[in-house]
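Box 3.1 — From sequence to structure: Peptidase S8/S53 domain-containing protein
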Amino acid sequence: MDPHEVSTIGRGAPSARPEYRRVPCWCASAAVLPWQAPDEGDPDAPPPHLAALTLATTLLLTPTTPAHAEDTITDQKYTSVAGIKALHDLGLTGTGVTIAYIEAAPDLTVPELQGTDIEIKNPCNYTNTPKSRAHSTAIAGILANRNWGWAPDAHIINYTTLTSYDTSVDEYCSAAPSFSAIIHQALDDGADIINLSTGAYFPYHESTAIIRATSMGVPVVVSAGNSGEEARNPGFKDETSLASLNTVVGVGSLTLDLERSEFSSVGEFVTIMAPGEDITLRTPDANGDLTVITTAQGTSASAPMVSGLLALGKQKWPNATGNQLIRALITTAHPVGEQPNPYYGYGIMQISPFLNTDPTTLEDTNPLFTRRDKNVTPDTITDYKDGLLLPTKTLGDPTYRYRGLDPDAVYHHPTRSHFGTSPRYHR
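Predicted structure (token representation):
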């Protein structure tokens, strides 16, 4: 195989899978600007620095190599593929951007997170298990590490919640807050991008937070899951995960050779692909301290790579909305087969074309309404903006006010209603 050519066909593909063609790969390096556009004089010029990045979750990072002792994680294998150092050298570090990520609290004492701007919000004083902390620490590093993180100068806010490994709940908190409530809090705090590297069940009645995020133009990036056709539990819970909701950016995993990871989930919820294998991270020792270093894989890691790239786009194009950034992400993706498809979504994330595309020239609407989800639709978003969604459809939203003409809705929700004031009545 030519070293500059890789197969984008997922390994172990069943016969029913589309035969996706091989595509060339031009990866970013310090010698070539990571957002350099192809020569417009050559119609056959390939997009430079084809860099795909993906990972998924429910604490879905699975160790893949024996653990060993080491003081500091100084590099990641994906950094040379993505040209991380070149991006940093050119000033693209996420300055001025706020990224919220929702899961267990990271361990801020590890060497890899020194010098980062990470804030932890843990109002219920949850005590996460070492395994949960290890997962969160890995995600924080991908976002913010000074050497190999995507956006080391971004403001990162961790909203601590319980994971499937945690049982400790503060006596003053009756139960863990829903993802919907935490997303609302992140929106209140001014998050530009929200990352969830988790495959947790997300009830459809909690879609109000996604409706609000979409109406505000804030991208919600979610790992697509590790339940691919070749995985241990193929398809497990994928259709009830947050990634299955319309407007959410569902991220699948690639190998560093830009092939779909065998474990990466397949379905209509896959939006984009990014690296999710060979991630170096810390795991707990016998005392629960994160002193053991190993490698792992999972779409949990892919999601923060996409969130990090979106942060760089927001820094370079500060007037772009989140909807426009999502459009730029999928329109510049390198397609593998029909767009979108269940295996690759819109394709492989491309760094240079994305950063070279002025997103403010694109339509300011979310393009991800192709899923079977009936709760988050274009009409729902329009009704939300006009205040015509019934209050029962927006429970938990601290900002929403019903402005319609339903007297029962006003009667039962007087503090959340402004009768007859919808802007739709005055157009």
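Summary of the box: Residues 299-316 form the longest helix (18 residues).
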